[in-house]
Backbone:
C-alpha cells in the first residue's frame, strides 16, 4: 500500500466531533446563502467576481506576476468591505428570513380565507374592467415604511372599497394598497422598484410589485390595465396570467392554508336496477 503523507494523517487526526460540527455549520450557511441568491442579479455578480478572481489567481501563478500576486493577497480586506455593500438587499432579506423563523403570527390564520376570497374577487373584477391595481398583503415583515408613503385608511377590507380606491379618477389610483389582516391600512403607497430585468410587456406596477417582494415577504396582486389580467408576485418572482381559481390556490399555498374541497354530491339511486328487480 502507498504511504499516506504525514500532512494528510495530521489533518485527519484533528477531525473530532467539534471539527465536524464546525464544517457542517459553515457548509449549511454557504448553501443557504446560495439558495437566497439563486435567480437574482446578485448571483450573476457573484459568478462574475468568482471567475475574475480565479482567472487572476491562475494567471499570476503561471506567469509568476509578483505585482498581481501582491494585489490579490492584500485585497481580501477590501472584498470584505465591498461585498456587504454590493449584496445589501440579499443580506437584508436573509436576516429578515432568519428573524421570521418559527414565527406564525399571521400565517395560517382562519380569517385569511375571507381576505383571500375578497382580494381574489376584487383583483379579478378590476382586471376584467381593465383597471390597474396594486394590492399588497402584509405577512410577517412589517411594512410601516411603505404605509408612511401613502394615505392612512384603516378601514375594513371590502371589494367595494378596493374598487373605489382604484377607480380611474381616484387620486389614489396609481399607488398601492397595503392590507394587514382584515384591514386596509393605507392607499396610494409608493413601492420600491425592482432592478431585475423584466419582459417588455411588464410595466411599472409589475416592477414595483417585484421590488417590495424582493425586500420583504409580502405578497402582491397586480391588475394589468393594458392586458386585463392578474399577476401574483412573491419572493421576488412573478406568476402572470392567473384566473380566479389559480390565484386563490397560489394565495392559499403562500399563506399556509389548505384548499377546501367542494362537498361530494351523493350518487343518484340506481332506480332502473331496482325496478327490474321488482318486476
Residues:
Amino acid at each position: 500500500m502507498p504511504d499516506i503523507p504525514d500532512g494528510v494523517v495530521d489533518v485527519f487526526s484533528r477531525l473530532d466531533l467539534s471539527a465536524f460540527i464546525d464544517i457542517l455549520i459553515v457548509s449549511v450557511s454557504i448553501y443557504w446563502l446560495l439558495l437566497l441568491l439563486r435567480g437574482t442579479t446578485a448571483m450573476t455578480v457573484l459568478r462574475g467576481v468568482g471567475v475574475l478572481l480565479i482567472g487572476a489567481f491562475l494567471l499570476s501563478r503561471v506567469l509568476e506576476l509578483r505585482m498581481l500576486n501582491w494585489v490579490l493577497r492584500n485585497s481580501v480586506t477590501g472584498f470584505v468591505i465591498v461585498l456587504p455593500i454590493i449584496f445589501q438587499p440579499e443580506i437584508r432579506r436573509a436576516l429578515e428570513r432568519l428573524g421570521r423563523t418559527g414565527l406564525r403570527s399571521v400565517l395560517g390564520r382562519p380569517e385569511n380565507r375571507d381576505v383571500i376570497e375578497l382580494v381574489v374577487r376584487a383583483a379579478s373584477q378590476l382586471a376584467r374592467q381593465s383597471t390597474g391595481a396594486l394590492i399588497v398583503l402584509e405577512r410577517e415583515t412589517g411594512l410601516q415604511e411603505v404605509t408612511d408613503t401613502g394615505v392612512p385608511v384603516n378601514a375594513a377590507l371590502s371589494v367595494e372599497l378596493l374598487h373605489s380606491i382604484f377607480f380611474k379618477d381616484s387620486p389614489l389610483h396609481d399607488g398601492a394598497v397595503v392590507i394587514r389582516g382584515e384591514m386596509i391600512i393605507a392607499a396610494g403607497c409608493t413601492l420600491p422598484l425592482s432592478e431585475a430585468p423584466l419582459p417588455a410587456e411588464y410595466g411599472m406596477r409589475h416592477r414595483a410589485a417585484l421590488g417590495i417582494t424582493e425586500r420583504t415577504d409580502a405578497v402582491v396582486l397586480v391588475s394589468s390595465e393594458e392586458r386585463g389580467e392578474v399577476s401574483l408576485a412573491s419572493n421576488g418572482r412573478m406568476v402572470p396570467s392567473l384566473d380566479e381559481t389559480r390565484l386563490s390556490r397560489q394565495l392559499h399555498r403562500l399563506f399556509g392554508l389548505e384548499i377546501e374541497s367542494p362537498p361530494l354530491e351523493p350518487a343518484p339511486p340506481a332506480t332502473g336496477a331496482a325496478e327490474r328487480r321488482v318486476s
In short: The longest strand covers residues 183-189. Residues 93 and 99 are 10 Å apart (CA to CA).
